[in-house]
Structures are given as C-alpha cells and as structure tokens.
Amino acid sequence: MSGGTSNFQSNSRVVNWIEHRLPIFSFLDSQLHQYPTPKNLNYFWNFGSLAGIVLVIMIVSGITLAMSYTPHTDLAFNSVERIMRDVNSGWLIRYIHMNGASMFFIVVYIHIFRGLYYGSYKAPREILWMIGIFILLAMMATAFMGYVLPWGQMSFWGATVITNLFSAIPLVGDYIVQLLWGGFVVDNPTLNRFFSLHYLLPFVIVGLVFLHLWALHMHHSNNPTGVEIKDEKQDTIPFHPYYTIKDMYGLGIMLIFFAFFIFFAPNYFGHPDNYIMADPLVTPPHIVPEWYFLPFYAILRAFTSDYWVYQIISLGGTLMSAKLAGVIAMFASILVLLLLPWLDRSRVRSAKYRPLYRFFFWVFAIDCVILGWVGGLPPEGVLVTIGQWSTFWYFFHIIIIVPVVGILERPKPLPDSIAASVTSAPQAAE
Amino acid sequence: MNMKKTLTAIALGFGILAGAGNAQAAGSGPKPPSIEWSFNGIFGTYDRASLQRGFQVFRNVCAACHSLNLVAFRNLEAIGYSEDQVKAIASSYEVQDGPDDSGEMFTRPATPADHWPSPFPNSKAAAAANGGAAPPDLSLITKARGAGGDSALRVSMFHPGGFALGADYVHALLIGYKETPPEGFDLPPGKYYNEYFPGHAISMAPPLGEGIVEYEDGTAATPDQMATDVTTFLSWAAEPELEHRKNLGIKVILFLLVLTAMLYALKRKIWSDVH
Predict the structure, then answer these.
(1) DSSP for A4-64?
(2) Among all residues of chain B, which has the CA nearest to that of A234?
C-alpha cells in the first residue's frame, strides 16, 4: 500500500521482536494512524466505516443466533420463537440481527450515493468502486437467504418467487432452479443450503471489504472537491485521531437510530406474514420482498409483454420472454454500475462543480425512491406505468445521460487544492 | 450544519420509506380504529388487570378452538399469577405424555413447564371440527395480522395516513361482526360477515356475546371490554419481552445520547486545530 509513511518506533522489546519478524505494528501505524486523509471530508464519508461496523455487528449477532437456530422446515420457525422467548436476551440478539440488515442497507445505499455524487468511482478508483458493487451483490444474496431462515410465510414465498426467476434462463434455467432448491420444490434441502450459504457469504464479504480497503488506501479517500491530494502537509490530516473520533461520533448517531428500531419498532421493517409459519398450500395475497429489494423488484415487474422497452429489446417479443427480460434487467440494474467509471466522461469528479450532473443526480435519486415505492405496492393501474417509466429512466440515466452530460457540460472552475478550498470556504468543511 | 440536516432527513427518509411490507393483509376492509393501548409507545407496559381478564376470556372462550402453542403455563407468572396459582391453573389441564415403560401413551395433569395444550390433536381434526377451516394458533396473532406489532411508528411511505397495528386489527375483528351483510353481498353458508376480515366472510362465529364471561374482578364484561382485554393478553403472548425491551431501550438510548454528546465534544476539541 502506498502513502502513509510510518516512522513507527517502540521501546517495547516484545513489540520490536514481533515487528522484526512480522511488521504488523508499522503496518497498522501507517494505515490506521498516520494514514493521510483529506482534511475536508464531510459527514457523508462516515458511512464507509459505519458499514464496516454494521458488518461486524451482523456477524457477531448472527453467529450467536446460529447457536440456537435449527435449520429444518418443521423446527426453524419455532426455534426462532424459542430464541425470542426462552434464550437469555435472545429477543435482543434477534432484533439486532433483523434490524441490522436494514441498517446495513441504509448505510450502504447512502455510501453508494455519496460515491455517485462526488464521482468517487472515477480513475484511479475504478477497481475500488467495482469491488464495492460486488460487496453489494454479496450483501443482497446474504440478506435474501437470511430472510428465508425463519421459515415464515414471506420467507417461503419470497424464496419461491425469487428462485423461480432463474427458470427464465434458456436451456439451463430449470437445472439452476433445481440446484438452488436441492429438489423440485422449495423444501428442507433449500433451507439447509440457504443456511449454509448465509453463514458463509458474510465472510466472503469480509474478504471483499479487505480488498476494498486495500484499493482505497492505494490512492486515499476522494473528497468533496474531487481534487486529488497535492501536498500531504497542506491537504491531509492523519487518520488518527481526527477521523477515528469523527467516525466514533458518527457511530454514536447511527447507534441511536438503530437502537430506536431495535427497542421501539423492532418489526417496522418486517412483514407481518413472516410471523405465520410457512405453509406451501396457502399463498399470501401480496408477496413483497424486504424494503431494500423493492427498487429492483419494481424493475423486475416493469417488464410486462406490452412494455415498450421490452418490445424494443426483444425485437417485438421474439428474442426473449418478458419474464426473462425482467430478470436480466433486474441484474443489469446493478451490474451496469460496474461500467460507470467508463460511462462518465467528465474529468471533474465532484457534482459540486457539475451543475447539470448535479441536477440529474437528484432526479436519479428520486427515481430510485419512486421505484422502491412502486415495488412495495400491488402492480395495478397507474402504478404499472409509473414503474415502467421509472425503470426506463434508471437505465436511461446511467447509459445515456451520464455520458452525454459528461461531454456537454461545462464544469465550474475547480479549486487549486483541497487546502485552497478549505480556506476559501471555511463552512464547507463542517 | 446544513450537512447534518441533510443526513437527518435522509435517515428519516429511509425510515419512512421502509415500514415496507406493512401493507395490510388484504386491503379489502376499512382501517381498524387506532386504539390507545396500554402497551403503546415508548413507555408502554401491559395493564396487569386487563391481562388477567384477557387470560380469562382466552381460557373460557378462545381456547375452545384455538391453540396457543408458544406459551407455557410458567409464562403466566409474568402476567401476575403466583407460582402456586400457576401450578393450580396448569394442573386443571390434562396433557398427553409418554410413552411410558410399557410403551403406552398416557395423560397426566399439566405442570408449569408444559405448553398450553391444543384443543385438537392436529390441524386436520381442527379443520374437520370447524367447517373445514382450522382456527389459527394465537401465539403470534397480533404480530401476524398487522403492521409492526407494537410499533412506535405508525407511518410509512406506503401508508402515509398511518397504519393499524396488529392489536388494532384483532380488536376490531372480534367485535366487527354484522348480523346481516350489506345489500348484494353473497355470504357463503357457514360463514359470518365481518367488516374487518379480508373478504368479509369469516368462518369464526361471533365469539364475544354479552355476558359470555363473568370477570373475577367485577368489571362489566361488555363485548368491547372483552375484546380489549383479550387483545391485550394476546399481545403479551406475542411479545412477552415488550416491557423489558422498552425499559432497556430507554436506558440504552439515554446512554447513547450521553456518549454521543461526549464524543461530539471530543471531536470538536480534537478538530479545533484543523484549518
């Protein structure tokens, strides 16, 4: 890792003995202590470390839950209730884990939109950004499988609907679905393999997070001006104590928000039907995924056979079914973000100096909220049309607007350096 | 400061945005009235007298057809019965046990460790005895029939006008029967018309007739009173941890507020030399 010169020294013979064999102390010193960080980061830069902390909270609470959980279709539901009622503080651990999933997505979505606003995905941070997208995908898979584990009605039917999507894939679709199910219906083998993978994937995420941090530390954090660090003395401050304390303060705020839901509205993010044990013979009237999947669910459902976008991409319905198109669009809506560093032609990073991009950024953000709203309601009447136009706009923004704005826009003049921006606008740093 | 306002707005926005799945089971009925439950809100606790009356209603009325699988007799100590009272209540029920040393199943009086016995041996028997529809287990009914259990929040992006809690729904359902369905409503035989039940045709006969229970504490057992009491009891059955949870929550949040204030002061101090 570059940067972060360490002039680490110790008087302890033990530390020096270890340091001589494994230079872990100088490594930590250079990467967490001396590590030069732009001095003008605003509070949106807290969300990366918050996401890391929520990941740890999820792993610790999850390992604890697994000690009392039974992954069997006959026992899973009651084993969760046993945790809620008879395990010491089991309700607390379970509500931490349940609401922690929502907190994780809130924090990560803000983190991603911060990256979009300040152009953090641009060179030389493309790989950093791409690893982040893979983390999001792994999170989604983990969250989806975790939601199945309590084996409530929404667990079962959510699993049925989502795994069935893969059957739309030509040739191998049915095979993939059987592989996911471990049989011919969602049943005990499905629950078993989901539990196994739900336990595995978070550690994959930990690995990806290390790569994410490694890539981050190569070129350091972006900052609200989007101007690179030019003079370490002028532009940066050491990570510790400045950003350790700022992150701690941000953590305090987040924990208050988190605790409110754990203690006073623990089921706010959940669905009542998941307190009914799974019954393959009774379909809930309205199957909805967890809130953090709703925008993607809306994109999936937008693809009906009369949707004009579908008509175009399937050459009038001949190339693929509407279901397949919806599945492709749903996955593409995340995968297309991998291309963003190359779609955005502007050399200016921060939307602060890009008035036109800034406008479209907010339109895009509102579009995502509308997609989430539509995704949570039954696909009826005008909602279908709204969902379809919002889906169109989602892709239109990323594939057309971002490149075109990048070429056409005349950005405002950039400050000479981070230090210059701080002295000319002292309130911007707060 | 602007930044903080934006962040607060975003955080609240996410909170409101979610509450997601809270679409009512099937929105074909009127919204149940919002009741001021004793256990609502941040400082809510269960009204002990109401819990015990509700238990009486459950025992004398609901338990004839509904199970309460997740509740054990020992749990009743939490609603104000003494150990001896719980033993007495338990021993008035027979539960199946076994097999004994000769391989036979046998029945014995229940002990506090036993869970509430089901009125029917299995769900098929329950359905057969109730016109084809097995009465649902009531252990989680208030969490399974409405938004967010005892949620301190009643708004979401999907219900900007506010949503009903599970307890509101159960209470409304219990007294929401109409003798004659509205003009043009085709009520299937063996069903009853209920204003709040999705689809309105419910298999459960109106359970709470005037005077079906005589309260031990002398409270007048009106249908509304019984519905309120039994819903309180069932809310406790669904969320027995509620009082402990809210109590702990207040302490945790007060602690976090003080901690965060101190971290903020420290942050200001440490950052005071950054220009």
Answers:
(1) ---------HHHHHHHHHSTHHHHHIIIIIS-EEETT--GGGGHHHHHHHHHHHHHHHHHH
(2) B275
